[in-house]
Design brief:
Helix content: 25-40%
Number of domains: 2
Number of strands: 17
CATH superfamily of the largest domain: ATPase, nucleotide binding domain
Strand order of the largest sheet: 9-8-7-10-13
Radius of gyration: 22 Å
Largest sheet: 5 strands, mixed
Length: about 450
């Protein structure tokens, strides 16, 4: 298979998506003949700087491949780390193309507007001779169990609650809701408050609250989230940014709390339950997100929105409805991926109203022995097997933990088995282990882990 003149060899292809080109294989092939240095630094909140060094060809014959490679790399790092200012040291023509791509009317206009908006500043791409020095702030959230704690995990199709006393879950439950199609802030606040009160009813008192939330979170505030995508901007700023703090006030004053991105909490859940660090948690649910626990057991403070990070180098890859970009994770590792592949599997989902119901319908067919449904999950496993080596190059994580509704039941086992097969056959040099927790942890583990987020509690 070929893209931008780069020939990519693939042994295992997703049976329902044979045009898939793993971006990891594209990059490996590209870098074999690239030797001209190209450096990137990305600045985000609190003056944190992420630096990435790589190579390009820098000749006329590879100009399209050079730009494609750098365009995808910058896109990945933005959605991996976050940022609003990009520093470039390298080929001037590539710099000019990148600057045009992120300018109004450019191919990455959505990304520039998005990050400029959440960081409330102008998005910039700057050419420089000397890059700023790397700088990151590490968190020590999670793993705190003393006292009576509430943990809540808010996803796009359901929310999960847990009441935890001294590390033991005394109550857990899952409730369906539809935040992504509702524009009324009162609907959202009512559900968030109900979730808190539901868990509080099973505790003698509430000492702390931990929240796992889809979206981009900073300082316990919601900067952006598809959960609340239908809420008008002015109401989002006044009613949604501090929605979790508002809800917690309904169950008590001055309760310590922490709000963290759900990908990070997925990683924390794995780290706690399995006693492992250097772990990448992947939440395959309504959307797709990742979170990393480093070798010292610290959570990252990266945005971890892998839904928008590229994984497929095919020029015919499916487009993301939000950004319009193609080949990004949301179309490969969540319920949207299941829906995307259903027509090729001979499955019609027109009779089901919501994405969650469509996923459930496919899972029921799988349980009934439907071969097309099995092919969907084998294809997802193939995507995963080809993408884990890419994530390994980025994170150097030794363990990958799969969580979320897409890996619930038989589908999760098929995804895991297929991914492991591809790793054995095509990437034997990648030293990783992919893990599935038990069924209860797959669905409810994040809410229990969320309860351990606050370091302080009122019991002290």
């Amino acid at each position: 298979m070929q893209h931008c003149g780069i020939e990519v060899k693939i042994l295992n292809k997703p049976e329902l998506d044979p045009g898939f080109i793993p971006i990891h294989k594209f990059n490996e092939t590209f870098l074999k003949t690239a030797s001209e240095p190209f450096l990137i630094a990305i600045e985000r909140n609190d003056k944190q700087i992420h630096v990435k060094s790589t190579f390009i060809h820098g000749d006329l014959a590879h100009k399209d491949a050079d730009f494609y490679y750098i365009d995808r790399l910058v896109k990945f790092e933005l959605w991996h780390k976050g940022g609003f200012r990009i520093f470039i040291k390298g080929d001037d023509d590539l710099f000019q193309k990148l600057k045009a791509a992120y300018a109004p009317g450019g191919s990455r206009e959505y990304d520039a507007e998005f990050f400029g908006s959440i960081y409330q500043t102008e998005f910039e791409i700057i050419k420089c001779d000397v890059l700023p020095e790397p700088y990151e702030i590490k968190k020590t959230l999670g793993g705190h169990f003393k006292g009576n704690r509430i943990g809540v995990d808010f996803g796009g199709s359901d929310y999960k609650v847990a009441a935890v006393i001294d590390g033991e879950a005394v109550y857990s439950n899952e409730t369906v809701w539809n935040p992504k199609i509702n524009s009324d802030p009162d609907y959202h606040l009512s559900n968030v408050t109900s979730a808190m009160k539901e868990a509080a009813a099973h505790l003698p008192r509430v000492d702390s609250v931990g929240v796992s939330s889809a979206g981009i979170i900073a300082n316990n505030r919601v900067l952006a989230a598809q959960l609340y995508g239908q809420v008008p901007k002015e109401l989002f700023n006044s009613r949604i940014r501090d929605i979790y703090a508002q809800a917690i006030k309904e169950i008590g004053e001055n309760i310590p709390f922490e709000v963290v991105n759900d990908g990070d909490v997925a990683a924390l859940a794995g780290s706690i339950s399995m006693g492992r660090n250097n772990l990448l948690g992947l939440a395959l649910g309504t959307s797709f997100t990742g979170g990393y626990v480093d070798k010292e057991g610290h959570l990252s403070n990266w945005i971890s929105e892998l839904a928008f990070a590229p994984v497929d180098a095919s020029p015919e890859a499916a487009a993301d409805i939000w950004s319009g970009d193609i080949g990004v994770g949301v179309q490969y590792f969540c319920q949207e991926a299941v829906i995307k592949l259903s027509p090729a599997a001979g499955i019609s989902l027109d009779d089901y109203e919501t994405p969650a119901k469509k996923l459930k319908a496919v899972q029921i067919l799988l349980d009934e022995g439907h071969e097309g449904a099995a092919a969907i999950f084998r294809s997802l496993g193939c995507y995963l097997g080809h993408t884990v080596p890419y994530y390994y190059d980025i994170y150097k994580a030794e363990s990958f933990l799969l969580l979320g509704r897409v890996v619930s039941g038989k589908g999760g086992d098929i995804i895991l088995e297929t991914a492991k097969k591809i790793l054995r056959e095509e990437y034997p040099e990648v030293p990783v282990e992919i893990l599935l927790p038990d069924e209860k942890t797959r669905r409810l583990g994040q809410s229990v882990a969320a309860a351990s987020l606050p370091e302080h509690c009122r019991c002290e």
